[in-house]
From TrEMBL:
One Pfam family it belongs to: dCMP_cyt_deam_1
Record-level Gene Ontology MF annotations: guanosine deaminase activity
Domain CMP/dCMP-type deaminase: 2-115
GO terms under biological process: purine nucleoside catabolic process
Origin superkingdom: Bacteria
CDD domains: nucleoside_deaminase
PANTHER family: CMP_DCMP-TYPE DEAMINASE DOMAIN-CONTAINING PROTEIN (PTHR11079:SF161), CYTOSINE DEAMINASE FAMILY MEMBER (PTHR11079)
Name of the protein described by the UniProt record: tRNA-specific adenosine deaminase
InterPro entries: CMP_dCMP_dom (IPR002125), Cytidine_deaminase-like (IPR016193)
Signal peptide: none
Gene3D superfamilies named among the record's database cross-references: Cytidine Deaminase, domain 2
Length: 156
């Protein structure tokens, strides 16, 4: 059986693919019963859709593949703390666990227009049962921002 580290590494690798394709440094991998259901990078520029964050894209793909909007029992591995929109989508989809690397404030430091509302705060406000694991492979996730910065792209 694969480990949390291997699933997060899949998200990191997907984010690197996205950077090479002109996307921003974010990746997300959704797993159910130890199997990857979807693993996508940010598609904002490719789709010209500001909501096409890696987590949203992965949730959409997982719902299609599983033919349900109830993702109970799924875990999402995200290279960065989900923004409020992405956390809300995880909550509405009933994702059981969020595992993330870098934090929202890290994204802001690299120029991204993030709302500074942590997943822990949103969890409390919503009385959400989602389990949250923070700073998982944090250094590897931060390295994505550096790799992206070296590519000469700009934050949105």
């Amino acid at each position: 059986m694969k480990t949390d580290e291997q699933f997060m590494q899949s998200a990191i690798n997907k984010a690197k693919e996205g950077i090479k394709q002109g996307q921003t440094p974010f990746g997300a991998c959704i797993v159910k019963d130890g199997e990857i259901i979807s693993c996508l990078h940010n598609l904002v520029f490719e789709n010209m859709d500001i909501t096409a964050h890696a987590e949203i894209c992965a949730i959409r793909e997982t719902c299609r593949r599983l033919r349900t909007i109830d993702l109970s029992g799924c875990i999402i591995y995200s290279t960065c703390e989900p923004c409020p929109m992405c956390f809300s989508a995880c909550h509405w989809a009933r994702i059981s666990r969020i595992v993330y690397g870098a934090r929202i404030e890290d994204a802001r430091q690299f120029g991204f227009n993030e709302l500074e509302i942590s997943n822990e705060v949103m969890k409390q406000i919503a009385s959400s049962p989602v389990e949250i694991t923070v700073d998982f492979l944090r250094q590897e996730s931060l390295e994505l921002f550096r790799f992206w910065g070296e590519s000469g792209q700009k934050a949105y």
